[in-house]
Design brief:
This protein is mostly helical and about 140 residues long. It has one domain. It contains 6 helices and no strands. Helix 1 (about 5-30) packs across helix 6. The protein is globular and about 60 Å long.
Length: about 140
């Protein structure tokens, strides 16, 4: 495993696992099923119960949950014993709506270094003009006559 991937796993582990739980619990919140294992399009059955799947490749974060398949499955099931709190759900939805990563400052800086793009959310609309410019230029909403 490369150093960049290990840093991402270490700094974003809590956030990535919260996102995984959010995704796996969507059908439960939507009242489509009462248990994530009952939703056939989910990876929960593979991750938590060991059901084989030709289309799934275990993520390194999942692999880090235990040394054996049984340990990983048990640890994954344990993640789902507690419900996601409203704040975690709200944070995930906000990050999705703003097309932003979810994590701490160290995680954001690493994403920015890897991609060369700033990943901070910006206010919507045009930037506001600074009132009282001394540069002689008219600001937004100001016209020189």
């Amino acid at each position: 495993m490369g150093q960049s991937l290990q840093i991402l796993i270490d700094t974003g582990r809590t956030y990535l696992l919260a996102c995984q739980r959010y995704i796996e619990l969507n059908p439960v919140r939507a009242n489509m099923v009462n248990d994530p294992a009952h939703y056939r399009w989910s990876s929960y059955r593979s991750n938590a119960l060991g059901q084989s799947s030709a289309i799934l490749t275990p993520h390194p974060l999942y692999q880090s949950l235990g040394a054996t398949g049984e340990e990983r499955q048990s640890a994954y099931r344990a993640l789902f014993r507690a419900q996601l709190d409203a704040e975690a759900i709200s944070d995930i939805r906000l990050a999705l709506n703003q097309n932003q990563p979810l994590g701490n400052e160290r995680f954001y800086r690493h994403i920015e270094q890897m991609t060369g793009q700033r990943r901070e959310s910006k206010p919507r609309g045009r930037p506001r003009a600074v009132v009282g410019n001394d540069d002689g230029m008219a600001g937004q909403g100001e016209l020189e006559l």
